[in-house]
From TrEMBL:
PANTHER family associated with the record: BINDING PROTEIN TRANSPEPTIDASE, PUTATIVE-RELATED, PEPTIDOGLYCAN GLYCOSYLTRANSFERASE
Family that this chain belongs to: In the N-terminal section; belongs to the glycosyltransferase 51 family. In the C-terminal section; belongs to the transpeptidase family.
Molecular function (Gene Ontology), one example: penicillin binding
Lineage: Bacteria, Bacillati, Actinomycetota, Actinomycetes, Micromonosporales
Name recorded for this polypeptide: Membrane carboxypeptidase (Penicillin-binding protein)
Organism of this sequence: Micromonospora rifamycinica
Length: 686
């Protein structure tokens, strides 16, 4: 019998050393820095209000000093009452387990110390492949020997307190509660610092078998028996007096369960409309190389990395956007009316709102308005999580004459002046575009137009001629530089180098675009031609409190959440484009004449400060747009049927995006100082 007892201990330094020394040393090095998966938090712009969390394992790392002594003592009593006496492996426990298992011809008793259990959990958490997970958890003698070797090594490098802290942050307690913070929250709606002896003993008892001893089950008998066992052990170790333990054992287990929020659909009802911005954060995150080499790795980082993410929305602007697209009142329409507001000079998204409820539950949605859809296909209203505002895979909506900005800006950047004039008939046949013959929306547009009047009245035949002069491909390329992406097969083909020169209809907005893209593109013009990538966050910090960073192609380390900007056109060209873009809004340009009337002359009166912008409608008014901006904010609003692009909005609703942008700019900027646009130079006026 003595020989039998000695064997498992000898294996740790004998057979195990020969077979696994190198592997164990490598694994031990990993464990020194291994951290368990941790929940990432999305905060409101105040940096304090938690909107939601992202996790696969709900866990928040908690320092031992922030845990009640009750839970520290209870876990030692439950799992390893000789924790403070052994050096990682308990010879008495090993011998006892070996004898018991030999007699039963199976595994009737374990010998894992807290340190050995921590090693197992850390190996599991740091595993990179399914094979490594299996290796860390499989029930074999070799795995146990490796575990013992690593436990002995870890105890030489970490204090008992450090091991206990790591253990309590790694252990699984059931109900997706990983670590003591999650367990205290899920079972008792408390923090680890406030756990009573009864609560601590209940949680400590769960580690052995979370399902068997679940206190949230209808029958608490097994949970109570296990808790009482832990309380008795605590009394034996003098953590509790016998009388205190007896009193505690007579108490019922009083749980106060909490279901932690997870992902964007869990955002509180008061912030429901913010779900669309949350969804954009996820889509944006999945495209950031800073978080991994592919989408899968990046999303894994989000759910396991313990990041602190602060949303970029401005609550005042967001509230204005929600109000002015009827986010709460007009959710029952097949026509989506949405708006995105971006900040010139940073690209930060200040508002995202649409007349929909952000929800995964589409059970009560009616049938799709698309006649070609399966009859069982649900409509996108009133509930949806589809990225209707941009940032996902949806192509967007035809943006109409808002695209006239791109050839005009390209012409100005190429040196053509604002005074460039063309005789603009009702219909114009283009020799450049193979006889294509677009017409204007009204005969009143006929006559000689400049960039000011042509843009203000949205004269199609003026812009076709302007596009002929600079080349349609230059307008397409500029749109791409300002963040537009082509998602349909038709748009991709037309925008290709082989086709772009002949894409005359580009200036009329036949391509799909999203309000996110359009708001950000126009924001670059407001920022004197400096384009900034759309940025949905104010900050991202790692679990250790340092800013999340990435390395540029040039080797420079930069913060992920910092604006990423570049000059796309020269500042004078952008200022000139803004001067012309004041005409559609009823504003007065600094240098030229708007020609007597405009397409959205109510905007200036509504906003009450200098404002530029452009209307846009498509054939038969299937969709309607307005993109407007001040020096401080740029906003793009649309109305269309996302399910059926042939379901015409109609002229009667074409004013809705105009009002949405004008009123949102007015309300969002209320109380802020009025800023003026910088006039263009005389050289570019012509």
């Amino acid at each position: 019998m003595l020989a039998a007892v000695a064997y498992p201990l000898a294996a740790v330094t004998g057979l195990g050393a020969k077979a696994t020394a190198h592997a164990v040393e490598h694994k031990t090095n990993i464990l020194r820095t291994a951290l368990p998966a941790e929940t990432s938090y999305l905060y409101a712009p105040d940096g304090k209000t938690i909107l939601t969390m992202f996790y696969e394992e709900y866990r928040q790392y908690t320092k031992l000093s922030d845990m009640s002594p009750n839970i520290q003592q209870a876990i030692v009593a439950a799992e390893d009452n000789r924790f403070y006496q052994h050096s990682g492996v308990d010879p008495k426990g090993v011998a006892r387990a070996f004898v018991a298992n030999a007699r039963s011809s199976g595994v009737s008793q374990g010998a894992s110390t807290l340190t050995m259990q921590y090693v197992r959990m850390a190996l599991r958490d740091s595993a990179q492949t399914p094979e490594e997970v299996q290796e860390a958890t499989q029930q074999t003698s070799l795995r146990k020997v490796k575990e013992m070797r690593m436990a002995l090594d870890i105890e030489k490098e970490l204090t008992k307190e450090q091991i206990l802290e790591r253990y309590l942050n790694s252990a699984y307690f059931g109900h997706r509660a990983y670590g003591i913070y999650a367990a205290a929250q899920i079972f008792f709606s408390k923090t680890p610092a406030t756990l009573s002896p009864v609560e601590a003993a209940t949680l400590a008892g769960l580690v052995k078998s979370p399902s068997e001893y679940d206190p949230l089950s209808s029958d608490q008998k097994d949970a109570t028996d296990r808790r009482n066992y832990v309380l008795d052990k605590m009394a034996q170790l003098h953590y509790l007096s016998p009388d205190a333990a007896a009193v505690a054992k007579n108490e019922p287990i009083r749980t106060r369960p909490t279901t932690p929020a997870n992902d964007c659909a869990s955002i509180p009802g008061a912030y429901n409309a913010w779900g669309f911005a949350c969804d954009y954060v996820k889509n944006w995150w999945s495209a950031q190389p800073a978080f991994g080499e592919n989408r899968l790795e990046r999303m894994d980082k989000l759910r396991r990395g313990g990041y602190r993410i602060v949303l970029s929305l401005d609550p005042k602007v967001q509230a204005a956007a929600e109000k002015n697209v009827g986010a709460k009142e007009r959710v029952g329409s097949p026509f989506a009316n949405g708006i995105v507001v971006a900040e010139p000079g940073t690209g930060r998204i200040k508002a995202m709102a649409v007349n929909r409820t952000y929800s995964l539950d589409v059970g009560d949605n009616g049938p799709s308005s698309n006649p070609e859809a399966d009859p069982k296909t649900k409509a996108n209203y009133p509930n949806t999580v589809a990225p209707l505002l941009g940032g996902g895979t949806l192509p967007g909506y035809q943006a109409g004459s808002t695209f006239k900005m791109f050839p005009m800006l390209a012409a100005l950047d190429a040196g053509m002046p604002l005074s460039t004039a063309f005789d603009s008939p009702y219909r114009y046949r283009s020799a450049v575009y193979d006889g294509w013959a677009p017409s204007n929306a009204s005969g009143a547009m006929t006559g000689r137009q400049t960039m000011w009047s042509g843009f203000g009245k949205s004269v199609n035949t003026y812009f076709v001629q302007l596009e002929e002069k600079i080349g349609a491909d230059r307008g397409v390329h500029l749109a791409e530089q300002l963040g537009l992406r082509w998602r349909t097969d038709v748009d991709k083909e037309q925008a290709s180098p082989a086709k772009a020169k002949k894409w005359g209809a580009f200036t009329l907005g036949v391509s799909d675009a999203t309000p996110l893209e359009m708001a950000n593109a126009y924001a670059a013009i407001a920022a004197d031609g400096r384009y900034c990538e759309a940025m949905p966050v104010n900050s991202i910090t790692n679990r250790d409190g340092t800013p999340a960073t990435y390395r540029t192609a040039g080797g420079i380390e930069r913060e992920v959440a910092k604006p990423r900007c570049r000059q796309v056109v020269n500042a004078d060209a952008a200022r000139a484009a803004t001067d012309a873009a004041r005409c559609p809004t009823g504003d007065t340009p600094a240098k030229g004449s708007c020609g007597g009337w405009s397409t959205a002359d109510s905007v200036r009166r509504t906003v009450g400060r200098p404002v530029a912008g452009k209307t846009g409608t498509t054939d038969s008014t299937r969709s309607a747009w307005f993109v407007g901006y001040t020096p401080e904010l740029a906003a793009a609003s649309f109305i269309a049927d996302p399910d059926n692009p042939f379901n015409a909005v109609g002229d009667g609703q074409s004013q809705i995006p105009v009002n949405a942008v004008a009123q949102t700019l007015r309300d969002g900027l209320k109380g802020t100082p009025t800023r003026q646009f910088t006039p263009p130079s005389d050289a570019i006026v012509g």
